[in-house]
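Please describe our next protein:
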Amino acid sequence: MDFDLSDDQRLLKDSVDRLMAETYGFEQRRAHMAQPDGWSRGSWAQFAELGLLGVTLPEAQGGFGGGLVEAMLVADAFGRSLVVEPYFAHAVLCAGLLRHAAEASVQDEMLPVLAAGESLFAFAHHERAARHCLSHVETTARLGEAGFVLEGRKSLVLHGDCADRLIVSARLSGGMRETNGIALFLVDAAATERRGYATQDGLRAAEITLDGVIAEVVLGLDAWPGLSRAVDEASAFLCAEAVGAMDALLALTVEYMKTRRQFGRAIGEFQVLQHRAVDMQVQLELARSMALYATMMAADPDEETRSRAISAARVQIGRSLRHVSEEAIQLHGGIGMTMEYRAGHYLKRLAMIEKSFGDTEAHLDRLAAMGTAW
C-alpha cells in the first residue's frame, strides 16, 4: 500500500505546519485562551481562509475537496500546537454529521456556511447517564404544531457555549440505548439554556437544557448510521491529533534531557533515561501506525468493520498516550506539571482525547463484544 502523500497533500501539510509555527506558539495559545470565547476569532478566520474548515467537504459545497487523509494532516499539526479553537466540534464532528445524516438539500444549504465559518456549529449528544454508550439518548422529540419539540439535557457539548447552531440528537422511539429511533435536529443555540465552562485541556464546553425548544431543521429521522459513521471519523481525527501531541511532547522531553544537568552531566547521558526515551519512541510509532490504520478504515461503509478498526486503533493509542505522557512528566520532574510549561498541557489534552467517545477500557469492551481479541 502506498503511504506517500500527493502533491496537494504535501502542500496542505506544509501550509498548516507553517501557519502553526508562525502564529501558534505557546504564549500565543495562552493569549487565545484568555479571550472571551476561550479561543481566537482571528485564528478562526485564518482557518476559514485556508479552507481548513471545509477540508473534507466537496468543492461544490464550499469545501477543500479533500478527505480523511487531509483531515489527518490537519489533526497532526493541531495536536502539536494544542489548538484551542472549536475545529474538532465544528469542522470534524458537525461536518461529518451533515455529510452522512442530512438530506442533500440541507447539505447544500448548510455546508457552505460551515466551511466559511460564518456560523459556528456544535454537536449536543452526550448525556450524563450515557457513560461511553454512544446510542444512549434520553432527550425526546415529539411532533407539535410548529414542528418537532425537543425536551432533555445534554452534557459536555464541546464549544456549545459560543455555538450559533446545535446539532441535537433526540429519541423518537425505542429504549434509551437502542440505535433505532434516534433522530438529529438543527437547533438555534440561542433558544436553549446554556452553562459554559472550561475543560481541563483548555477547551470550552457547555451543559445544554432543551425545554420545549422547536427544531429549525430535521437532519435525519433515522440518524444512527450517519451518526455512528461521523463519530468513527471523528475518532480517527482524534487518533491523529494524539500522535501529533505525543510527537511534540517526546521532542520536548528529549530536548529537556539534553539541557537539564544532574551530577555534572546532562541527564540525557544516563543510559537508563535513554532507554526510557526509546520506549516512548516505540509507543509513538505504534500509535502512528494505528492512526494511519484508523484513517484508512474510517471511510469503510460497513459499520462493524469500521467500528472494529476504530476501536483497535483507540486501544493502542490510549495505551501509547498514557505511556508517553506519564514518562514525559517523570523525566521532566516537577517542571512538567506547571502551568507555565508546555508539557503539562500536552498531558491534559492527551488525557481528554483518551476519554472522548469511549476510553481505552470501553473500546476493549467493544472489541470483546465483537468477538475480537486485542
In short: The first helix runs from residue 7 to 23. The longest strand covers residues 147-158. The chain has a mean pLDDT of 95.
